[in-house]
Design a protein that fits this description.
By secondary structure, the protein is an alpha/beta fold. It has nine helices and nine strands.
């Protein structure tokens, strides 16, 4: 069965595509969202610029705030270096022959028309944002997503940040699930707890989950296609909170990273 990858324009997405081929999946095309949802680091930079005067005042009045913001940047840099080293083992030339189309949105009308004309069989989803129902209906088998938490806890975006914010690490890991019209409420295929964690900060946890997704997501989808995995319904899926990007404020960032900074002293 052919598999279509719907993803973003990151190197992690390219590594996932290479991993799909190495696991024997028949990757027939890639759909790339160019204006992907920004990474946590991107959002931090944008937030800092937007609140520059406020941050300058905070740094001037409170040296602890300046230390915390610099620590936050070091965490992001440390995690990205780790991810870059891991991704370095994947040869992107192996996916150069895969037909690839770029859209500004995962729900772009042209993509909808393309899928109506040539319906996908199974779609793997990684880092695209919410997919609307009219697109979901077009897959012959299913849309399958990789979410960074053990669902149903911490639905929505940037689960790792909220796990750190609440100092709650019981649901660390990745859930591979079918996509429905809800936010991370689809049936479960497999859950992979995150173990042997070196650093408990949002950036390191995100990179650790990303590595697990690159390695394990293709294997799970292959087993699902072969009928070796039967989807199961989530418990309490509609009763847990779905977080949004805009929920992460400067104050919440300072709360998270100041606590982590003190713990590492």
């Amino acid at each position: 069965m052919k598999v279509t990858l719907l993803t973003n324009n990151t190197d992690a997405a390219k590594a996932l595509a290479v991993s799909m081929l190495s696991q024997g999946l028949d990757l027939d095309r890639m759909v790339v969202v160019a204006s992907r949802e920004p990474s946590l680091r991107d959002r931090l930079v944008k937030s800092v610029r937007g609140e520059l005067s406020k941050i300058k005042q905070l740094i001037t009045l409170d040296s602890t705030t300046g230390k915390t913001l610099r620590f936050e940047r070091r965490c992001a840099t440390n995690a990205q270096k780790h991810l870059k080293r891991f991704i370095g083992q994947y040869d992107f030339k192996k996916i150069s022959h895969i037909p690839t189309k770029v859209f500004s949105s995962i729900n772009h009308p042209q993509l909808l028309e393309e899928f109506k004309h040539t319906p996908p069989e199974t779609c793997m989803v990684y880092g695209t944002g919410i997919i609307k129902e009219n697109l979901l209906q077009l897959a012959k088998k299913a849309f399958v997503n990789a979410h960074c938490s053990i669902l149903p806890d911490y639905r929505g975006t940037r689960s790792e940040f909220w796990q750190c914010f609440h100092d709650d690490f019981d649901s660390l890991g990745v859930t591979i699930h079918l996509v429905n019209s809800g936010v991370d409420t689809g049936e479960l295929l497999k859950q992979i707890p995150l173990t042997n964690v070196e650093y408990f900060d949002p950036d390191w946890l995100r990179v650790s989950n990303t590595i697990n997704i690159i390695e394990e997501f293709p294997k799970i989808v292959k087993a699902f296609i072969e009928g070796k995995i039967i989807p199961t319904a989530q418990d309490r899926a509609t009763h847990t909170r779905a977080y949004r990007f805009k929920d992460i404020t400067l104050e919440k960032r300072l709360t998270v990273y100041e606590r982590i900074r003190k713990q590492r002293k």
